[in-house]
Design brief:
With 355 residues, this protein is mainly α. α3 runs antiparallel to α4. The N and C termini lie far apart (92 Å).
């Protein structure tokens, strides 16, 4: 075991900095701003959980949607559910400097990074899958099996967890702060160099390149099919299949675009604070955080707008839930009436049996 002197030498003098559970953290949020921020975050959390739960249920229940490709979509939806269930509450807690225990603080902040990284790697896996579906369509069924897809999902979550847990060992010296504020705990060199330039930006560039290649291949295939001397019905079926895959690819590319638009402002703010002496105002930082979290509620909207199969599945699920709720209410209301009617029937039978 390390002694207190050893911990101090390593910059991990947590007992001296965190030995009080009643530390009065300075108010960086200003009450009204904090209340507005909290209300907006809670609304985003609810929408994220509700919308992405619909996505998971639609894929698991719908026979046509239960494909290896859509398992990657479910993995992305689970990451967004984790944002609503855990990352947003954690962000609200750290905005006021909680939790005070050093290990709990580092894990809380690390988990927020894990969910982001999982989404990035998930979108990279989806982009590769779309490339195989369009560019390697003859061998796609052989390559994209359920087993390989599950292994891919496990690899994306493992890699994201490994990257996100780095702040557990790479963080600012504990003697420099007493409250769990992100910028005072997480080393900004990790956020800028390792996280942004190393783990966020390269996958986004690769994804953009893959989708660009997918669109070029699809356009080339459509031109070739239109020139083939084959039956009109066969040509139409082939073109319809490619157009369907292209529409899915466009929809998923929009998911990537929404992610980049939501998260890049926060990373740019980190770069500005790290490379310059300028400090971005706190209200701008909070707005960027809200924008990044709002991305978790956007994907189901894109699926509903762009993909008919998901739209129909969502309608069926919501209709089923509503009908089940109304049916339970009606049964609960009719129970006393049925019981009373049964008693009358029993009395009538008794009177007939004994004249």
């Amino acid at each position: 075991m390390f002694t207190e002197r050893d911990l101090t030498a390593m910059g991990l003098d947590w007992n001296m900095s965190w030995n009080s559970s009643d530390v009065d953290c300075p108010d960086k949020s200003y009450q009204l701003r904090f209340y507005v921020y909290t209300v907006v975050e809670v609304m985003i959390a609810f929408l994220s959980i509700f919308g992405n739960t619909l996505v998971c249920v639609a894929v698991l229940r719908g026979r046509r949607l239960r494909t290896p490709s859509n398992l990657l979509v479910v993995s992305l939806a689970v990451a967004d559910i984790c944002v609503g269930l855990f990352a947003i509450p954690f962000a609200i807690a750290t905005s006021v400097g909680l939790p005070l225990h050093p290990y709990a603080c580092c894990f809380t902040l690390s988990f927020i990074i894990i969910t982001t990284q999982t989404s990035i790697f998930g979108m990279l896996a989806i982009a590769v899958d779309r490339y195989m579906a369009v560019g390697l369509h003859l061998s796609y069924a052989r390559l994209a099996t359920t087993r390989r897809t599950c292994l891919t999902i496990a690899a994306t979550w493992a890699a994201a967890t490994a990257i996100g847990l780095v702040p557990m060992v790479w963080h600012r010296s504990q003697s420099a702060f007493t409250c769990c504020y992100f910028e005072e705990v997480i080393n900004m060199s990790y956020m800028v160099y390792f996280n942004f330039f190393g783990s966020v930006l390269p996958p986004l560039v690769v994804v953009a390149a893959i989708y660009t290649r997918v669109f070029l291949i699809a356009r080339s295939q459509l031109k070739k099919i239109s020139k083939l001397n084959i039956g009109l019905s066969i040509r139409d079926r082939r073109m319809a299949k490619i157009k369907r895959e292209l529409r899915v690819a466009v929809s998923l590319a929009m998911v990537v675009g929404a992610f980049a638009a939501s998260w890049l402002p926060l990373h740019i703010i980190n770069c500005v604070n790290f490379f310059t002496t300028t400090r971005v105002p706190n209200q701008v930082v909070l707005s960027a955080i809200v924008l990044s979290h709002a991305n978790s509620a956007v994907n189901p909207v894109i699926y509903t707008w762009r993909l008919e199969e998901f739209r129909n599945a969502f309608k069926a699920i919501l209709t089923s839930w509503c009908q089940q709720t109304f049916r339970q209410d009606e049964e609960r209301d009719l129970k006393p009436v049925r019981s009373y009617a049964q008693l009358n029937m029993v009395e009538m039978q008794k009177s007939r049996s004994f004249p």
